[in-house]
Amino acid sequence: MKFVNSAASGAVWVAEVVEMYDVVVVGGGAAGLNAALVLARARRRVLVVDAGEPRNQPAAHMHGFLSRDGMPPGELLAVGREEIARYGAEVRAGRAESVRREGAGFVVGLADGSEVAGHRLVVTTGLRDELPEVEGLRERWGADVAACPYCHGWEVRDQPLGVLGTDPRGAHQALMVRQWSADVVFFGSGLDEPDRAKLLARGIRVVDSDVVKVLVEDDKLVGVELADGSHVARSALFVPTGLSVNDGLLGQLGAEHTADGRTTVPGVYAAGNVVDPMAQVVIAAAQGAKAAMTLNNDLVLAEATLDRRVHGL
């Protein structure tokens, strides 16, 4: 609750009530929704704030999730929202831009100027993939250009594949991609000799030139153009992306991830790609569940203390 002094009305105090939830979850991906599911089933009053920009939105399907293999990412989120609604959890569309501690709870400011508040906060804001500056690469992202062979390797198995050496991780990624095809080409200048030896030992061809353009015909990737103007036919590309973690809210609170979903700030929890950039969807969902169980246990212990006001309860 905030009060505003209006001099024009003779110092009349006007109350603006911010509705208080047991838990505010910021981020409506797999981690956030699974956290909300566990908490709502534990009879906590939960609000999920979601900007609607999931990392895997460009992908047609997700994989490696038992019972959900091949499901479109958007469908998983839609089902998740329906499930948490059965237990009374709410979802609000909006971008969380600020957070502050107020009393024993937390107030989250949204881009539209509104605020929401909770006794506890779960941050599952994920990350963004930063692609190298190669002409046409971004347009194929999530289709025949990908980062994770575990997510997309099966779909392009036994095809002529390429790996861009735009990052030091590229050589290792090529070693992994070789698991799905015997025809793998590594593109990139500046490869050191130890990595070159490993690639050659795995039967991976090395082209000491950078890719400058992705070649597409009939909405399919058909190859790449190199810096010297030559073309190499390929059906799909794997590229190590830069990872920009959306940890601004955690930074505002000075919160760092510790264990079991907790952070260094009491009452603040985190899960998914915001704290584990390599987590796939199934892992992020599990982390959300674990953080929720940790949070609920902490709340139960707080509720058992003599002075519940200290915990904002």
> Average pLDDT, to the nearest integer?
92
Here the CATH topology of the largest domain equals FAD/NAD(P)-binding domain
Low-confidence stretches: 1-15
Structural class of the helices, strands and pairings? alpha/beta
**Separation, N- and C-terminal Cα atoms:** 15 Å
Structural domain count: 2
- How large is the share of residues in beta strands? 25-35%
Fraction of residues in H or I helices: 10-25%
Coarse morphology: elongated
Reading the helices and strands in chain order gives EEEHEHEEEEEEHEHEHEEEEEEHEH
Catalytic activity: [thioredoxin]-dithiol + NADP(+) = [thioredoxin]-disulfide + NADPH + H(+)
InterPro entries: FAD/NAD-bd_sf (IPR036188), FAD/NAD-binding_dom (IPR023753), Ferredoxin-NADP_redctase_2 (IPR050097)
Protein name: NAD(P)/FAD-dependent oxidoreductase
Organism: Allokutzneria oryzae
